[in-house]
Design brief:
alpha/beta; 5 domains; five-stranded mixed beta sheet
Length: 659
């Protein structure tokens, strides 16, 4: 055979260069490593295969030996015997049957001939009888052989068709797997690109927040200080209040962007606080009522069930969601009423915010929850905003395990429904007390060192802490702070993180190495929610006692300082404040004027109802007569701080004193 084929079938397939650069290769069948001399490429498994697996595996049907099998050889011989036109008319199944039948018939005939020769006899009649018997048996066997051969041919054909179909499906699955692998690689690459883009966005937001928070810290801080200055006129107070509210709005926009980044990165932390639900809702509704009154809208609150006194939730995020929804309702309503409905049942609170605004088209009911998506309608005024309020509200709601949905009728208004699990608290711990005016603290005078490269930031902290009894030392960098440590007895350090030279973390580490054990508060405009998100290298240990994010709120700063130094505040006497207000108002009010007491009584009724728009109209009447400037100024100050109860108390005392 080798001589006739000239060595054609010595090697199953020609050698390849697949193993030119490796000493060993893994077999696709058994998974073992072999030297490359014992390996070859298998077209059936589409990979490398060892010589042992190649010899033992019969499922491949010798796909590597193209044209070498008996059937292939017979087909080639048939093509040699018949011309192109004739071979097309020959039934392959019949040809295979005739070939096998001929071979087997000849073989059986040869056997019977040998038997006949062995049983040869001199008697002609006996020999003839034996030959006839053998011929009859041969013919019967020939029929049986024909049936068996035909069944064999059909079985082989079915086997071949099944194998071809299996091979075809296997090839399709292999191609699909390869296509999925390519798709998976592309998806992985796209995911890596998206992660890189998201990280770049987070770094950009963190960096830009520092650039925005630094000047905003000075603006908001000094606006808070000027708001407490009683020597300013009413017009000046309004301007300062506008600056403070605008700064708060800008700070909220920055926090909204950072909140979205934190949510996407999975870094948002949820708290479980004990919250007075009634107080929280009153603060939110009072603020929203003022906003609605400024646009000439009515604001109604409805309680469909008895509310629990104290619940467990994340107060900051619940407040943020409700304020976002109410602010949007007011923003997109030009006339009519905003209705805020609350229902509490089976530990679940449902909040309904309904407006009579422009409404939302059905196609946009989900679009409004996408980041930066805002619906713009021709002929309607464009409202300011980032397009993140509803996005953040839905994200926070889902994280808190609730649901936020909307229904709307274009031209009639919209209704947002917020459902949250707010468990009732039966054993109430101490709740935070309402904010009171601080005049000082008990004990000896404390010294605070403020380290910041920005002079305006140092001055702001100094002006917040000095009036309540602290001695404030300022240092422009870490070196100046280290020099001052030996000359002064310092009780508390406030260190800015981002400083040239020695940054806040390095300065803190040096202070601890020098044996300074006093509490340290870290201050930064780079923070998202805490020091874990601050820019700059952070030490492996965390020897600081707190963290303050810019822009600094005075109450937050004082709370952190009180906690770090374990202080007990001394508050201004609310009754004394009220009496001073009453004395000023009594001097201002001209009780001889016939309308004066009527206005005061009407203002009392409006304040008891919480009707802000009505209170504003009464004040405008009093202003028009120019009879009570101090009274109007005092009432407006309480209204701007949403202290409606103080207005009620003030009116009652003035009426009582006048009588």
């Amino acid at each position: 055979i080798a001589w006739m084929t000239k060595g054609r079938y010595y090697i199953a397939r020609p050698p390849t260069n697949d193993f030119a650069y490796t000493a060993e290769a893994a077999c696709e069948v058994c998974g073992n490593l072999f030297e490359t001399e014992d390996m070859t490429t298998c077209p059936s498994y589409q990979g490398s295969i060892c010589s042992l697996c190649c010899s033992l595996d019969s499922l491949c049907n010798d796909r590597c030996k193209v044209g070498a099998r008996v059937s292939d050889q017979l087909a080639a011989f048939g093509r040699f015997l018949f011309t192109g036109g004739q071979i097309g008319r020959v039934n392959a199944r019949l040809l295979q049957f005739l070939s096998l039948m001929s071979v087997l018939s000849a073989f059986v005939a040869a056997v019977f001939w040998l038997v006949s020769q062995q049983m040869g006899s001199d008697n002609t009649e006996v020999s003839q009888l034996v030959n006839n018997a053998l011929f009859n048996v041969y013919m019967l066997l020939l029929i049986l052989i024909g049936v068996l051969v035909w069944l064999f041919v059909l079985a082989e054909e079915s086997k071949k068709l099944a194998l071809d179909e299996t091979t075809k499906q296997a090839d399709l699955l292999t191609n699909e797997i390869l296509a999925h692998h390519v798709t998976d690689m592309k998806l992985q690459k796209a995911k890596e690109n998206a992660d890189a883009a998201n990280q770049a966005k987070s770094r950009y937001l963190t960096g830009i927040s520092h650039e925005l928070r630094s000047p905003l810290n000075s603006i908001l801080g000094y606006a808070q200080l000027l708001e407490k200055d009683g020597s300013l006129s009413d017009a000046q107070q309004k301007k300062i209040n506008l600056i403070r509210r605008s700064s708060d709005h800008l700070a909220n926009l920055i926090e909204g962007l950072l909140d979205l980044s934190s949510i996407e990165a999975g870094r948002l932390e949820m708290r479980r606080d004990q919250v007075s639900l009634g107080t929280l809702l009153k603060e939110i509704t009072d603020m929203s009522r003022v906003q609605a009154a400024a646009k000439g809208l009515d604001f109604a609150t409805v309680s469909l069930s008895e509310l629990p006194e104290v619940i467990t939730t994340d107060e900051k995020h619940l407040r943020q969601i409700l304020i976002n929804l109410l602010s949007n309702a007011i923003k997109y309503t030009e006339r009519g009423v905003i209705t805020f409905t609350v229902r509490y049942r089976s530990e679940v609170a449902d909040f309904y915010i309904r407006d009579t605004g422009i409404g939302i088209e059905p196609d946009y009911l989900e679009t409004i929850f996408h980041p930066f998506e805002r619906i713009r309608k021709p002929g309607t005024p464009q409202n300011p905003g980032t397009g993140l309020g509803l996005t953040i509200s839905r994200f926070l709601t889902e994280i808190m395990g609730g649901n936020l949905s909307v229904t709307s009728s274009p031209g009639e208004g919209s209704e947002f429904r917020l459902s949250l699990m707010l468990p009732r608290v039966f054993r109430v711990s101490e709740l935070p007390q309402p904010t009171r005016s601080i005049k000082g603290y008990k004990g000896v005078e404390r010294t605070v060192m403020v380290v910041d490269d920005n002079a305006s930031h140092r001055g702001l902290i100094s002006e917040i802490l000095s009036p309540v009894g602290f001695e404030v030392l300022e240092a422009k960098d870490g070196y100046e702070c280290l020099e001052a440590v030996g000359r002064h007895r310092i009780h508390l350090f406030l260190l800015d993180i981002s400083m040239p030279g020695i940054d806040g973390w390095e300065l803190l580490e040096q202070l601890r190495r020098e044996g300074v054990s006093q509490p340290v508060l870290m201050v930064s405009a780079d923070a998202i929610d805490g020091p874990t998100h601050a820019m700059g290298p952070e030490p492996k240990f965390r020897p600081h006692d707190g963290f303050i994010a810019k822009p600094i709120r005075d109450n937050n700063l004082l709370d952190k300082v009180s906690t770090a130094l374990d202080l007990e505040w001394e508050y201004m006497d609310d009754d004394a404040e009220s009496k001073r207000d009453i004395r000023k108002c009594e001097v201002s009010l001209d009780f001889s004027h016939p309308e004066c007491m009527n206005d005061c009584s009407e203002l009392l009724s409006m304040s008891e109802l919480g009707y802000i728009a009505g209170m504003e109209k009464v004040l405008q009447r009093i202003e028009a007569r120019s009879v009570a400037p101090e009274f109007v100024k005092c009432v407006r100050r309480h209204m701007s701080e949403l202290q409606i109860s103080r207005v009620t108390d003030l009116c009652r005392r003035i009426i009582s004193h006048a009588q």
